[in-house]
Amino acid sequence: MVFAILEINESTELLPNITLGFKLFDSCYNEVLSLMGAKWILSGKKNGVPNYNCNKDHMPLAIVGDMPSKASVPLARILGLNRYPQVSYASGQPLLSDKIQFPSFLRTTYNVDYEWSAIAQLVKYFNWTWVGMIYSDNDLGISGAQLLTREIEKSGGCIAFQETLSISSSMKFIYRIIDVIKKSRATVIVLFCTIESLVSLMEEISFCNITDKVWVGTSGWSITSDFPRIEILTTLNGSLGIAPKNGNIPGFKEFLHSIHPSIFSNDPYMKTFWENAFHCVWPGNDAYNNLSQTLLKNGSDWCTGKERLDSIDVNIYDVYNFKYTYNVHNAVFALAYALHQMKNCVPGKGPFKNGACADAPNHQPWQLLHYIKKVVFNNTAGEPIYFDENGDGLIAVDILNWQLFPNGSNQYVHIGSFDARSPKGQELNIWLKKILWNGQHTHVPVSVCSHPCPKGYRRAALQGQKICCFDCLPCSEGEILNPNDDTECLKCPEDKWPDSRKEKCLPKLMQFLSYEDSLGYALACISILFCLFTFSVFCLFLVKQKTPIVKANNRELSYLLLISLMFGFMCSLLFIGRPNQIICMIRQVMFAVIFSLCVSAILAKTITVIMIFSATNPDSKLKKLVGLRIPIYIVPGCTIIQIILCSVWLTTAAPFAEFNMAAEIGIIVIECNEGSRVLFACVLGYMGLLAAISLSVAFLARKLPDTFNETKFITFSMLVFASVWVTFIPAYLSTKGKQTVAVEIFAILSSSAGFLVCIFSPKCYIILLHPEMNSKQYITGRNTRKQRI
Asked: Where in this chain does the record put each G-protein coupled receptors family 3 profile domain (predicted)?
């Protein structure tokens, strides 16, 4: 304040030829002393008389102060009665913005409601969802705690505990608060306390060695130097604080370094300051003679006056961080600019009735108040200064980090800022790399009731607990965590499936038996190999077509059976690859018709054997049927019936390709739906009927005296066929996805291979390895021997 008035008095542009003076009074954080000081300043006497002014020349223009809100409120109520200007540099209580109750109160600081917003955003920024709170038992603390609670809960956080602290709190009450702090899982504790009520609590906390907490403070105490013990500073190490924006006051640092008791000889505090700063005794300091004698006894020397203030540790004599100092400087300049505008008022163009101006030397308090409210100017640092409609200053705060170093030094480090004028969501700026938590370069402390749920787990509220305390339950199969609400899971669409972390739904994998699969590739190779092997047998039979073993039992039926088997092996390839409408319609029909043709050819061969031996038996009743050539009609007749069934199936309820979402978890199986299950069962049932008839006839004819045991081989082949398809049914029903198709292909290949091996391998063995048995003489001779026997 002294520096600002000296600047104004030396200015040739601001209030030229006018010298400002001042009176100082220390209210010591006390409302009563604050009112006494105001009475002394206004009345002109230390023991003032009500309604009596002892000022010889002029009454003071305005009062700058007070610092604590509790002192400014009663002062503002009294000064407001006469509209006497009051400009505070630190009182931030929201109530003071009410211009009906406090019409003459203005401040170069901000409404502390914005501090609650800054702290709420700070808590949200560090993801602290479980926060303790201690607040003073006054209007500022109670209203601040309510606002902060609302803001934290709005952003999803919770208040772990709330404790009220008053100046008159007993030690029993303080011990109870400390016990709550120890038991709480909250790592972060917000303090809405004034310094005078906080000192005793922090002393006891330091005695208890509670150093694992992060204390978040408001401007009411966070930048104070009133904590008397180093243990308290150790406890507060790593804490965060809100403070008014640090300002720039050009020339002020040099001014602070230049002060000297010889320059301010009338200042009662100057000599004492010098003694404390340099641990020496100033000669003639009568006001503090006892202190001087104590210093001399402790070995201190006399002050020489040549000590340099710029050599003092910045932690003791800080000439760089101007917070409330900056606000005081702006308050004095605001009064000076208002007085300057009032002095330069042009009669007839003034702001009062009929364009009148105020009489500057003898103005009324309300007239100067009018100018102060509307003052707009740039301070010496070039920053704009003005008051809003509520008489509040600019809304900008600094975020500080208290850091204590191993050598015992300490400092507040500017680690961020909060500017309410910035766009929404951009008000808070933090520089994480500058923060020291508990004096160490560690990660951001965690303060939660329950740790966040892992990916794919939802929050389940605990009965009787706050929302920040919860259990984690996994989302069910096919569900993901709701990105907008972590308390519920969302079911994925049918064609999608959650990813491994259950964060989003991904398209399901398309599955079918393809040639790229090792299983599909192996089955395709087996099918082709068996088809080639069957073709080689067919070629061998063509080459040896005139030999007895080929001519036996109807050569044409053998050719037809071999061709059918080749198609049977090849039709299994229709089951490999991505199904579509045409493939689904063809593959089951081809399979049914080809196997019906095979089984009916075997049935015809069996009946041929029976009729041949019936013809040689004079007593056989079947001898008359030999000339009808019944086996020739069995194959087309039986096959046509199957073709008719398949035609009805295709025209009424044909198979079609479909996406099976439920066959396997997380997979879409592309498969063929058989359409009408009844008709599909009829087709398979008819084929089973043919197989049963063939097996029965072959079994009854197995002991006929055939040279090459044809009926026995047919019986074995039909037994293999029946065994394969009987075991196929449960295997088919118990598999899912592409394994179902693989089972059916395996059944087709196994039954076809059974026909090929059981019926034709004995013939190939004789043709290739024992050609002497494939002769008319061998057959004739063997039959002669049988007849003799």
From this structure: 519-783
User: Largest Cα–Cα distance in the chain?
Assistant: 167
**Local structure of residue 756 (DSSP, 8 states):** I
All residues at 6 or more sequence positions from 638 whose CB lies less than 8 Å from its CB, including other chains: 596, 599, 600, 603, 690
Q: What are the respective helix, strand and coil percentages of the chain, to the nearest 5?
A: 50, 15, 35
Phi, psi of 242 (to 5 degrees): -100, 135
Distance, CA of 696 to CA of 719 (rounded, Å): 10
Q: Which residue has the higher pLDDT, 398 or 49?
A: 398
* Cα angle value 624/630/634 (rounded, 5°): 155
> Residue 587 corresponds to which amino acid?
R
Kindly report, residue by residue over 34-90, the tens digit of the pLDDT.
Answer: 888 888 877 776 666 666 667 656 678 899 989 888 899 999 999 999 899 999 998
Which of the four pLDDT bands, split at 50, 70 and 90, describes residue 614?
Answer: low
Instruction: Look at residue 712 in the predicted model and tell me its pLDDT.
Output: 79
For 673-730, give the secondary structure using H, E and C: ECCCHHHHHHHHHHHHHHHHHHHHHHHHCCCCCCCCCHHHHHHHHHHHHHHHHHHHHH
The single residue listed with the structure tokens 């198979």 is 655
Lowest pLDDT segment from 500-504, 569-573, 594-598: 500-504
Q: What is the 3-state secondary structure (H, E, C) of 60-113?
A: CCCEECCCCHHHHHHHHHHHHHCCCCEEECCCCCHHHHCCCCCCCEEECCCCCH
Q: Which of 289, 331, 281, 301 lies closest to 63 in space, CA to CA?
A: 331
Element (DSSP H or E) covering residue 141: helix 139-154
Cis before 212? omega within 30: no
Task: List, in order of start, the domains of the chain with CATH numbers.
Answer: 2-109+323-382 (3.40.50.2300), 113-246+396-434 (3.40.50.2300), 259-314 (no CATH), 457-507 (no CATH), 520-788 (1.20.1070)
